[in-house]
Design a protein that fits this description.
The structure holds two protein chains of two kinds. Chain A has one domain. Chain A has eight helices and no strands. Chain B is an alpha/beta fold. In chain B, α4 packs across α5. The longest helix of chain B has 16 residues. Chain B starts with 20 loop residues before the first helix and ends in a 25-residue tail after the last helix. The chains are: A mainly alpha, B alpha/beta. At the A-B interface, α1 and α4 of A face α3 and α4 of B.
């Protein structure tokens, strides 16, 4: 239900997705001009550029998850819904997942195309890496966005809270992508996907337990 | 923008599948009378370091309308938020429909309809979308039909597909009223519900409250207007500085005297108007 509301509101205003897509395009363009390397020269750092860009773009969406509810004074209404309050977390996290997924779909071809890095990865493991790297980010990011929303400097605090907790996901996603693109051990991606899977399992389950304690009207 | 449609002003017989008041009123452990929907005992509520409510006790029976009055900062909204499970009580006991609000789970929240200072409406969504969202969230059966009926009841069917950000304040209040009634709650908590309403919408709200009471539902509302409070309620509770300054029947109570209890001339003195709870306010000096 909440996902429907989020997507419906976004479809009408495009207040979240449009800045995210534009920011992703700006980042890829700036990298295209700013880095004095393309193709094979850029390949060793490309997975890092890719994921750090996506996570920075994702922060824009996370920041709006709860700040919009606060600004519209609708959060108490959600807390009155006769359901386990974790439904708010699930709805917001799924919406963030969709937003970041759309951004990735739009900007991935541009990252590969503009930076001249050949796409040599097997499709299924690459998609699995993208999904697992995004799920973990959306999940822990949504939880921390709820936490930060209670503070006056939510926009400033959110990146400070998110990135330290995100380090294992960054390592897993970057290493798996590097392995799949042939930059590192070609079979190493299985190990890194395992790490991402474990990270996601932990940071999807933990917010379901903690969320009720973090939100207040 | 076309004129707001004449509201039908009828709540739907059978409602949206909410709980029957008779199922929810018995307080466990003999707390309060068997027909009490709200039982508040020695409620103390702190917000930060401030003690907003100081030993408040009262109860509200099924089918009763209680108006809570008092000056700004008396604790009216805080009290309503405690009853609505939005604030856990600091001390004391608060039972709503027989459930302690501290452990207020989904079952308790389903029994409550809360209309606060804010409408809980999403401005980007249309009126229909807003009601449909809340109907689904509250598990209302046949949500489409219920939404249509409620839009007609509050006189907004012509604006059903307009984004709420295009609504006037009064229209948003009407839609917010439809929102809280969607799931047919046992207890309706209304925080200054007449604020921003035009006379037509205020009359509509009066009608809803009468119908609600007629169906055995309970209403607790706050208001600054003694005349309207007395007209709409069965009893009036006056809060001053977090304490119950007066609690008595609306019938036979004089609005001017009630106003004096709420806003005593010598407001620096807590005992400026010395009335005991339950004492009459029907002319002459209060005790």
């Amino acid at each position: 239900m909440l996902v429907w509301k989020e997507l419906r509101a976004e479809a009408r205003t495009r207040e979240t997705l449009t800045p995210m897509v534009i920011f992703a395009l700006v980042v890829v363009t700036v990298f295209g001009f700013g880095l004095r390397a393309t193709g094979a020269d850029l390949a060793p750092v490309f997975p890092g550029l890719l994921w750090i860009s996506f996570y920075f773009v994702g922060l824009l969406g996370l920041g709006r998850s709860f700040s919009s509810e606060r600004a519209q004074e609708t959060l108490p209404g959600l807390l009155l819904v006769p359901a386990d309050r974790s439904f708010i977390f699930v709805g917001k996290a799924l919406a963030n997942l969709v937003f970041l997924g759309v951004v990735e779909l739009v900007s991935l071809p541009l990252f590969f195309g503009l930076l001249g890095v050949p796409f040599t990865a097997p499709l299924a493991p690459f998609c699995a890496t993208m999904i697992l790297g995004t799920v973990g980010f959306a999940s822990i990011g949504t939880l921390l966005a709820a936490l930060a929303a209670h503070t006056r400097a939510a926009e400033m605090l959110l990146p400070v809270l998110v990135f330290p907790v995100l380090i294992p996901a960054v390592i897993g996603a970057v290493e798996a992508t590097a392995s799949l693109l042939g930059v590192s051990d070609p079979l190493g991606w299985k190990r890194w996907l395992g790490l991402l899977l474990a990270y996601d399992a932990l940071f999807v389950a933990l917010p379901l337990v903690l969320f009720d304690y973090l939100v207040e009207p | 923008m076309a004129a707001v449609a004449e509201p039908r002003g009828q709540l739907i017989p059978g409602g949206g599948g909410g709980a029957d008041p008779a199922d929810a009123v018995a307080a466990p452990g003999g707390a309060g009378s068997v027909s009490a929907v709200v039982v508040v005992r020695e409620l103390v509520q702190r917000l930060g370091r401030t003690e907003v409510l100081r030993g408040v006790s009262f109860q509200v029976d099924a089918g009763e309308v209680l108006a809570i009055m008092g000056p700004n900062g008396a604790g009216k909204t805080t009290l309503l938020r405690v009853l609505g499970t939005l604030l856990p009580p600091t001390r004391g006991q608060v039972l709503v429909c027989g459930h302690d609000v501290r452990g207020g789970g989904p079952g308790l929240r389903r029994s409550i309809g809360f209309l606060g200072h804010h409408t809980f409406l999403y401005p980007q969504l249309t009126g229909w979308e807003n009601l449909w969202f809340w109907a689904r969230a509250f598990g209302v059966p046949r949500p489409e039909a219920r939404v249509r009926e409620m839009l007609e009841a509050v006189g907004l069917p012509l604006f059903a597909h307009e984004p709420v950000r295009h609504y006037s304040r009064g229209m948003q209040q009407r839609l917010a009223l439809a929102r809280v009634l969607l799931h047919d709650p046992v207890l309706l908590l209304l925080d200054e519900p007449y604020t921003g309403l035009d006379p037509q919408a205020a009359a509509l709200l009066d009608g809803f409250i009468r119908q609600w009471r007629g169906r055995g539902r309970t209403v607790v509302m706050t208001s600054h207007d003694p005349g309207r409070s007395l007209a709409a309620s069965d009893r009036v509770l006056v809060l001053r500085r977090g304490r119950v300054a007066w609690l008595g029947p609306s019938a036979g109570t004089d609005a001017a005297r009630l106003e004096e209890v709420c806003h005593p001339r010598d407001s620096a003195s807590p005992g400026a108007v010395a009335v005991s709870p339950g004492g009459a306010l029907s002319g002459g000096r209060s005790r």
